[in-house]
Structures are given as structure tokens and as C-alpha cells.
Amino acid sequence: MYKYPIEIHHEANSVWATCRDLPEFHAAADTLSELMSESADGIVSALSIYVDQRRAIPKASSPLKNEHVVHLSALILAKIELWNTMIERDMRKADLVRTLNAKPVTVDRLIDFCHSSKLEHVENALLALGKRLSISVEPA
């Protein structure tokens, strides 16, 4: 659902990537290995733009033949679901503050993709919005 495919572009001494699902995403590195690591951070940065602009985060499309897939952490996936649920319900941060009876800074951190929130805090916020977090493990 949120395993974003990226297209790799090769140049003389570097590689860079784009993502058709997230046009705001860009990453560059010297090697493919470094690029894959940088790509996860680049996607997190792109997701922050969606929050800043109060837009829903798009689901990932199926990868094309030559694309690589960037897997995001369970925490980031949970935050995407929380954010998209808020957007679907036309909720603002203040609405979530009231719903959770929490401090504004707590809610800011829950929807900040760069903040290392505790997964159970995001899970509790989703539960308050009528969603249950479910995690599965699959082969790498």
C-alpha cells in the first residue's frame, strides 16, 4: 500500500531517483546502496510536504519492471494512516488534540514523520479515530 516504487537514474559518478507517486521526492547518492538508504529519508521529507499543505498522502502504485521499491518503517506507515484518516474526516490538529485530550505538541509529534514517536502512541490515536493498527511480517 505504501511501498513506493522509485526510478533510478544513472549519471557519470552518481545515481539519483524519482518517484511517480510522490513528485516532491528526490534523492541522490554516489552508489545504488547509498541511494536506497537516502530514498527512505527522501520519502519521509516528501510526506512532510503533504502534511504542510494539508493534502492526503497518495498510496503507492505497483512497481514497473525497472523500478526499485522503498519500504518504510511501521511507524511511518502508521503515521501515514493517521494523517490520511484526519484528512478524510476534515480534521485539523486541534480536533485531534481535543479527541485525544492531549497537548498540541503531542499531536504535532504524532503527525511529524521526522519525529520518532512511540508506535503505541500512534496506535492509540488511530484507535480513538476508530481504526485498528495491524502489522504483518512477510519475507524480505
Short structural description:
It comes from Kushneria phosphatilytica. With 140 residues, the chain is α+β, with helices and mostly antiparallel strands.
Gap from first CA to last CA: 16 Å
Number of domains: 2
By DSSP, the count of extended strands is 4
Largest beta-sheet details:
4 strands, antiparallel
Structural class: alpha+beta
Rounded to an integer, what's the Rg over CA atoms?
A: 16 Å
- Stated plainly, the CATH topology of the largest domain is called Double Stranded RNA Binding Domain
- Strand proportion: 5-15%
The unreliable regions are none
Order of helices and strands: EEEHEHHHH
Strand order of the largest sheet: 3-2-1-4
Taken from the alpha-carbon principal axes, the silhouette is elongated
Helix residue percentage: 40-55%
* Structure annotation, total helices: 5
Regarding CATH, which class of the largest domain? Alpha Beta
CATH architecture of the largest domain: 2-Layer Sandwich
Arithmetic mean of pLDDT:
94
Oligomer: single chain
